[in-house]
Each structure stands twice: as structure tokens, then as C-alpha cells.
Amino acid sequence: MGIDDTKRQIITTASQLFAKYGYYKTSIDNVAKMSRRAKGSIYYHFNTKEELFTAVVSSEIEIVKDGLTKNILIQEMPADEKLKKFLIQRMALLYNAKNYHETLQADFYSEFVFLQNLRKEWEEWVKLQIRVIVEQGIKEGIFEDIPQLDAMLDVLSMVSRGLEIPFYLQNKYEELSPYFDGMLKMLIKGMKK
To answer: How many CA atoms lie within 13 A of 69 on its CB side?
Structure first.
């Protein structure tokens, strides 16, 4: 097994443990034992538990990005349909990112600044993809030209992040997800010509 394979196995094992027991109750010893690796092997790849958890959350975000890219972003479809599918799929894919959910807890996020760059990069990536979709819609003549596009993207980003806490931490995703389509139709209708 190569170094990259070992690192992936450690991340996979740590992901399962963090998802099951949470950040605080998972130790490097637990990860070493469950992955059948020496503790030194874990520390060879990750200097701290924070670094390992960051790698786990980063891996989940990459899975979400990959799913959004393959299923929506590279597909040929009108911009209004693409935007709606992107926003719905984003929430669906994040629903399965259990370790990402832990980063949403206010006390966790404010106490552990080591994830700030990762979250910022994720949010910037999402805003960029939405910008590309909206600009496609403007070119297609589907959407109005939005003079304050940056401000609109910031608001949309805040609204999306605001929905994450009730959806994932308060377990309302399954209850509310049937209403996403209608909510997004209203949003997109307001952007149309």
C-alpha cells in the first residue's frame, strides 16, 4: 500500500469515527486502532487532530464539488434550470457530509479557527459557480442584468448558509426538502426577464 493509499485510508477511518462520535470524542488513538495503523503513521501524515479533521471535512467538500460539477455544472441546460438544480443538489450532497455538519455548530466554529480558510474557500467556490450560471442566464436572455450581482451573491450565500443549521443540525432537511423546488421557483422567477 502506497503513501497516498495509507493517507486515504486514515482519512476514511477518521471520517467514520468523527461522524459517529464527534470531533471531541474521537482521538488519534481511536483512529490508529480502527485503521490498524501505528499512531506514528497517523502523525506522519497529519501533525495534529485539527489537521486530520480538516482533511476529513475537505474530503467531504471535494465530494460535494465533484458531484455538483459532474451532475450539473458541465451539463448543457438552460441557466434557470441549472441554478435550481445546483442549489437543490448542493443541499442534498451536504446532507451526507456528516463531518461538515459539525463545523456548523456555533461553539465549534468560533472555537476552532483552523477550519476558517476551508469554509471560506468552499463559500467562494459556490459563489463563483452561481456567478457563472447567472452570467450564462443573462447571456441566454433568461435573467435580467443584475447590476449588483456581487451583493446578490453574498445575500444568496448567507441565506444558503443560514438554512444549513436547521436542515442538518436540527434534522429538518427531510421534512423541508420537498419544498425546495417551490422556494427556488420563486427566487428564479424574480431574476427572469
So the answer is: 8
- How confident is the model over 29-45, as pLDDT tens digits? 999 999 999 999 999 99
CA pair distance 10, 185, nearest whole angstrom: 42
Tell me the three cell numbers of residue 110: 468560533
**What pLDDT sits at residue 20?**
94
A 10 A CB-CB count for 63 gives 15
Neighbours of 38 (CB within 10 A): 10
- 68: exposed, middle or buried (C-beta count within 10 Å: 0-12, 13-18, 19+)? buried
Per residue in 45-55, is it b (16+ CB within 10 Å) or e — as a string?
bbeebeebbbb
Rg, C-alpha atoms of the chain: 19
